[in-house]
Write a structure and sequence with these properties.
Order of helices and strands: HEEEEEEEEEEEEEEEEEEH
Number of helices: 2
Distance between the termini: 39 Å
Number of strands: 18
Radius of gyration: 24 Å
Length: 282
């Protein structure tokens, strides 16, 4: 009787192990999945493009090269990690969140126009390559953010991990801010609320009262607040502040917004299901 119970228990353990192995295998990604990023940047030497992706826990490959339009990007290793090390930002049931920071180069032509990219080609250290959807990434030619004369210049600013960013600007001459806009084709501005110098509080972009008039040396403070505190998208872009001076000269200034992704297991499940058009589940 005891021997029979032993073999039954052993059989159940084997069946359980087999089912768990098959379940884990069913959750494996054939290729890493990149998050949907919202990035606007310029092709300057000091600028790096940081991209976030989900991959399998046992994936030992590294990204060796990316191709965005006619631009090539090569990873820049952090000095605190060895070149062959792999760093996981977060770990989930079957997957991990990683990032890669690349410096972009244009080897094809000296003349570059604005690029609006939704996908890229990714090359891995194990010889694989894949086309990856990356959200919306806008890349301007070198020097795009360099302005000869800033009439609305940033004095201070800061942010927090819960999606709140603030900027304080000073007017070097009397002016009017007439338009506040986001750079993307996708209307992500609906995800944010704005407060301006404590007077207009938690407004949507379309409900802001414009123009905003500033006398010389006066300050205005913008606070940008992500409505949904679940940060599943990496954001790195400037909000555009456009207007004219009292002398009729147009100007453009930038209020930069940055937010790193923080994913729950539920977020991971949803992203994978949407990106693979399947339901990998937990």
């Amino acid at each position: 009787m005891k021997e029979r119970l032993f073999w039954i228990a052993l059989g159940l353990l084997i069946v359980s192990w087999t089912l768990n192995s098959l379940y884990a295998q069913s959750k494996q990604l054939s290729d890493p999945i990149f998050l949907d990023h919202y990035i606007e940047t310029a092709l300057d030497d000091h600028n790096y493009l940081t991209l976030y992706y989900l991959t399998n826990k046992n994936d030992r490959s590294r990204i060796s090269h990316v191709r965005l339009g006619n631009l090539d990007g090569y990873p820049q290793h952090d000095f605190i990690y060895e070149d062959n090390s792999i760093y996981n930002i977060d770990t989930y049931n079957h997957h991990v969140l990683r990032s890669v920071s690349v410096r972009l180069r244009n080897y094809e032509t000296e003349i570059m126009t604005d690029l609006i990219l939704n996908d890229m080609v990714v090359y891995f250290s194990d010889g694989r390559q894949t086309h990856a959807s990356i959200g919306e990434v806008i890349i301007h030619p070198e020097g795009y953010y360099q302005r000869e004369e800033l009439v609305l210049w940033q004095r201070s600013g800061g942010g927090s991990t819960d999606g709140i960013t603030w900027h304080s600007f000073e007017a070097s001459e009397s002016l009017a801010i007439e338009e506040i806009s986001f750079p993307f084709n996708e209307p992500i501005e609906d995800r944010f609320n704005f407060s301006i110098s404590g007077r207009q509080k938690d407004r949507t972009l379309e409900s802001l009262e414009l123009p905003i008039h500033l006398d010389k040396d006066k300050l205005v403070t913008f606070q940008i607040n992500l409505k949904n505190k679940s940060s599943v998208n990496p954001y790195s872009f400037p909000i555009h502040l456009a207007g004219t001076t009292e002398q009729g000269k147009p100007f453009l200034s930038f209020a930069h917004y940055h937010l790193y992704p923080y994913l729950t297991q539920a977020d991971v499940n949803k992203i994978i299901a949407e990106k693979t058009r399947g339901a990998l589940g937990e």
